[in-house]
Fold this protein.
Amino acid sequence: MRTEKLKFNKNGKFIIMQVSDAQDLQFVRHTMVRMLNKAYDTVCPDLVVFTGDNILGNHLRDARFGSKHVIHTKEEEYEKMKKAISHICRPLEQRQIPFTMIYGNHDDMNEITKEEQADIYRSYKMCRGLDNPDKTVDVDTFDLPVYSSDASKKVFNLWMIDSAWCDKEADRCHTGVTKETVEWYKRRADELKEENGGKYLPSIMFQHIPMPETMNLLSECDKDTPGAILHRMEDGQEKYFILDPKKADGYLCEPVTPYDENNGQLEALREKGDVKAVVYGHDHSNNFIGEHDGVTVIQSSAASFRCYGNHLRGVRIFELDENAPEEFRTYFLTYSDICGNGIGSKIAYIWDADGCIRQKTALIAGAAAAGVATGALIYYLRRKSNG
Ligand SMILES: [Fe+2]
């Protein structure tokens, strides 16, 4: 891992590409890798941010097909993890694009500790961050400053926040932003303010799991309302929601699943006021931007082809401006935006994406029919030429 500073480019811009829930294994679905590579080559980001569930960490021991465990030791599992991580990191190493990461709930669901896993990411020269000396927080909780184009001062800050961990003994995943993490954020924001002449550094915060208050961006509705999404509440009640058009814009295609343990993250963000947006992954098929009480929240859909998802598979872009760091522009690029709508790109999508059963069946039936028709044509032509 190098420690070179991230800085605004010569045009005074800094382009971040968020890749969330890439969530694949040592046997990667190549259409996702091709989509990401094309996005890197088209957008040329200054930084790629993996926002958790970077690998499908709970299935590293599985056979290539099915879920039978064929790996039995931690050492073997670690090797498979290295291979899975290489599919997302190696293309960036080859392109010399810096990247950073946080964990999601799936990354930690195995025998490997978060520190050991971080060492794999750190083994790549283009990896940035993962360097917090404060050990009251997890390894994927840190801040990553973006310097001015002349590298003389910090202009913007990126907060990377852990929001999921696994109790390995009990084999149980927990979600939340710990009290220690909230306290660390407050301390560090104050330190950065002091360094910055008494002014908070404008920033974006990345974390995998949504804050519980994200539910306030939804409005309860009748189950017959177009786009209504069933949510099973903590008390067992079933309620239907849509995005509240006064508070949010985008796609709600599955329930929002915020973290369980609330330690006052939103209050801390309001108190400090430096965070322009909190950006999540986690709910693979949701993609929206909302605003509550002065804090923008953004949920980005997944990149993974191995796991469930929908037509919103893709990447999110953030454009920062050195001369206006309080503002940022964001937009989402879907698979079809990146790879086009040609027949080859559509077939690759259907073949590799989880689900699409009807289209896959039609594709196989079409290929079989085309094979039979070609065979019949060859047979007919041979018969004809033989007289
Ligand atoms: Fe995920």
In short: The chain is about 30% helix and 25% strand. Residues 21, 23, 53, 104, 106, 282, 284, 302 surround fe (ii) ion (CB under 6 Å).
